[in-house]
């Protein structure tokens, strides 16, 4: 969609683009520029968070920042103007238009305001005034009685405007979300403006009252319901990535019939292979870990059982067989769990797969994963073992047919060659969509992964 418009030959506006796949809104996380700053074509001006990822937005022209339309923390619809830029500074006055949303300020007092205007908060326009308008065709000129009635109406409107609490749109929205009546909030901002902190303070639980002594209890009035002391609860708005995760997981859990199978396997030889690969010169510069071998094992298992790499098309009542593997890796980030994927992972050599895994993880930790990197996944791996967890019952990533959970690798007693010995052991769990993957197919895939991890040489003989 077009993200830039012209307000004149001098001033240009930049709109919130659709940075994902049909997303409708994004939250402004951080502004990197302020009014008066010079910007150049391609310079990143802000960071926004969509329902899929945090994305940096570059400006597509040169100039000087004229105004920022929204403060940080505001959720903005796609297509709304977020910044205006003076592309020809010094050539004239600024254009008329919406005021920049920065610090809320009240206009001068009524006696200082222009005749016919009521003092208002920036961003809310002006109250309807008593300025004379051209009479409509056929309308009568109001007489003294009508004029008096109109004056009374205007006076009432003025009182309503003056009594309305002063607050910026984001603050009003916050109050609405928290169920706070702004009329009950004590403002601390300049000019009597209500701030976010004022609203949050009003929403915070009142501190518990001091305990009543026994001798006072007899004469005390009717019991009052106890109020939880401040600090016992924290409310976190569900939005952005976390909101998308919640919606996707609910949709997946109650759409695809999940089946999960488990297998515990001796991975001692795999751990020895990992140690050897770390010393291999052909793997120099590649981060080698058990996840790399597990990922390769899953790719080989999919090659042997290609029907598992598919998707259910509900609209057309078809099973869509994928002849490529975009391998998703579930990654925990400060903004929540995301699942970027390695495109065409089936075509990559072990060193290439290792490099792709390292890039994927580092990008996710930095919060720079793009929406495109999370689209089009076919099968996913989630490594719960890094948290010391033995296994779990993973929920399918929406649109995929299978997800493999890898548990912690621990030294355990194990029967090996007829004797109980300490061995490196882990538990794998494979969840699959039972609409298109039956028990036999799911079992074969899980058994193949386990067999490869037990005897890694199968990567060669089966691959």
How would you name the oligomeric state of the polypeptide chains in this document?
single chain
Low-confidence stretches: 95-142, 206-226
Largest sheet: 7 strands, mixed
Portion of residues within helices: 25-40%
Tell me the radius of gyration. 31 Å
Spatial gap, N to C terminus: 44 Å
Give average pLDDT, whole number. 78
Shape: elongated
Count the beta strands. 22
Tally the helices: what do you get?
10
Structural class: alpha+beta
Percent of sequence in beta strands: 15-25%
How does this structure look, described?
With 463 residues, this protein is of the alpha+beta class. 26% of the residues lie in helices and 23% in strands. It contains ten helices and 22 strands. Strands 12, 15, 18, 19, 20, 21 and 22 form a seven-stranded mixed sheet that branches. A five-stranded antiparallel sheet has the order 1-2-9-7-4, with no helix packed on it. A hairpin with a 4-residue loop joins strand 13 (310-313) and strand 14. The longest helix is centred in the first third of the chain and has 20 residues, at 144-163. The chain is elongated. Residues 95-142 and 206-226 have low confidence and may be disordered.
Task: Supply database-style keywords.
alpha+beta; 10 helices; elongated; 7-stranded mixed sheet
Give a short overview.
The protein is an alpha+beta fold and 463 residues long.
Topology:
Blueprint: E1 4-6, E2 11-15, E3 25-31, E4 38-39, E5 44-49, E6 54-58, E7 63-68, E8 75-77, E9 81-86, H1 144-163, E10 166-167, H2 169-178, E11 193-194, H3 196-203, H4 214-217, H5 240-253, E12 258-266, H6 268-279, H7 290-304, E13 310-313, E14 318-321, E15 327-329, E16 331-333, E17 336-338, E18 341-342, H8 350-365, E19 379-383, E20 402-406, E21 410-416, E22 419-433, H9 439-454, H10 458-461
Parallel strand pairs: 10-11, 15-19, 19-20
Antiparallel strand pairs: 1-2, 2-9, 3-5, 3-8, 4-7, 5-6, 7-9, 12-22, 13-14, 15-18, 16-17, 20-22, 21-22
Helix pairs in contact: 2-3, 7-8, 7-9
């Amino acid at each position: 969609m077009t993200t830039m418009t012209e307000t004149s030959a001098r001033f240009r506006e930049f709109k919130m683009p659709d940075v994902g796949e049909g997303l409708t809104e994004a939250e402004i996380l951080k502004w990197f520029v302020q009014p008066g700053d010079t910007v150049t074509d391609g310079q990143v001006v802000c960071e926004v968070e969509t329902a899929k990822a945090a994305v940096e937005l570059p400006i597509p022209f040169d100039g000087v920042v004229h105004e920022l339309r929204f403060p940080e923390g505001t959720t903005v619809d796609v297509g709304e103007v977020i910044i205006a830029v003076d592309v020809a500074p010094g050539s004239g006055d600024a254009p008329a238009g919406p005021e920049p949303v920065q610090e809320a300020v009240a206009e001068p007092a009524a006696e200082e305001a222009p005749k016919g205007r009521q003092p208002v908060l920036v961003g809310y326009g002006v109250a309807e005034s008593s300025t004379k308008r051209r009479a409509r065709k056929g309308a009568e000129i109001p007489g003294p009685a009508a004029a008096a009635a109109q004056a009374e109406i205007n006076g009432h409107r003025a009182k309503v405007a003056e009594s309305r609490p002063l607050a910026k749109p984001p603050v009003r929205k916050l109050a609405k979300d928290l169920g706070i009546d702004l009329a009950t909030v004590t403002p601390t901002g300049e000019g009597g403006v209500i701030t976010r902190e004022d609203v949050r303070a009003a929403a915070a639980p009142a501190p518990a009252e001091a305990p009543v002594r026994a001798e006072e209890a007899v004469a005390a009035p009717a019991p009052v319901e106890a109020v939880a002391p401040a600090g016992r609860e924290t409310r976190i708005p569900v939005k952005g990535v976390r909101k998308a995760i919640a919606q996707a997981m609910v949709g997946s859990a109650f759409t695809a019939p999940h089946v999960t199978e488990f297998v515990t396997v001796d991975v001692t030889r795999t751990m020895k292979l990992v140690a050897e690969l770390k010393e291999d010169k052909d793997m120099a510069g590649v981060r080698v870990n058990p996840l790399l071998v597990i990922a390769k094992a899953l790719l080989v298992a999919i090659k042997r059982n290609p029907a598992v790499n598919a998707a259910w098309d509900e609209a057309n009542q078809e099973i869509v067989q994928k002849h490529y593997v975009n391998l998703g890796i579930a990654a925990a980030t400060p903004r929540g769990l995301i699942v970027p994927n390695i495109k065409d992972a089936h075509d990559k050599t072990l060193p290439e797969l290792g490099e792709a895994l390292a890039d994927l993880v580092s990008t996710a930790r930095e919060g720079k994963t793009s929406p495109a990197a999370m689209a089009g996944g076919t099968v996913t791996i989630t490594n719960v073992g890094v948290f010391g967890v033995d296994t779990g019952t993973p929920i399918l990533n929406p649109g995929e047919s299978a997800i493999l959970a890898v548990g912690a690798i621990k030294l355990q007693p194990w029967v090996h060659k007829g004797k109980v010995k300490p061995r490196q052991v882990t538990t794998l769990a494979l969840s699959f969509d039972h609409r298109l993957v039956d028990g036999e197919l799911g079992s074969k895939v899980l058994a193949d992964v386990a067999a490869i991890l037990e005897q890694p040489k199968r990567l060669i003989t089966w691959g």
